[in-house]
Amino acid sequence: MHSNDIKDRFAELRAKGLSLSRIASGIRVSQRTLVEWNRQLAPDIRALRAVHLEASTNKPSPRAKPTSPALVSARASRIMLPFRHLPWLPKYASV
Question: Are 48 and 15 in contact (CB under 8 A)?
Fold first, then answer.
């Protein structure tokens, strides 16, 4: 018998998309046992996948840039700098 902690770990790893063979070598459980657990825990694994998917879509991208009003204004000023001599330049872009 395997502990519930190992089964929980299996479900977590499977929900993250790891293959049965990779999980088997990682948690030292036979692949045949994991096939059986995969069948038994299928609803739990699907639920965990949904949670992981939702968490990953709600997390801001590491490449996302902050967009505070001051930062936007600074970016606009930097972008508009070469055009500052033009009469139609908006006031917010003054340097």
Answer: yes
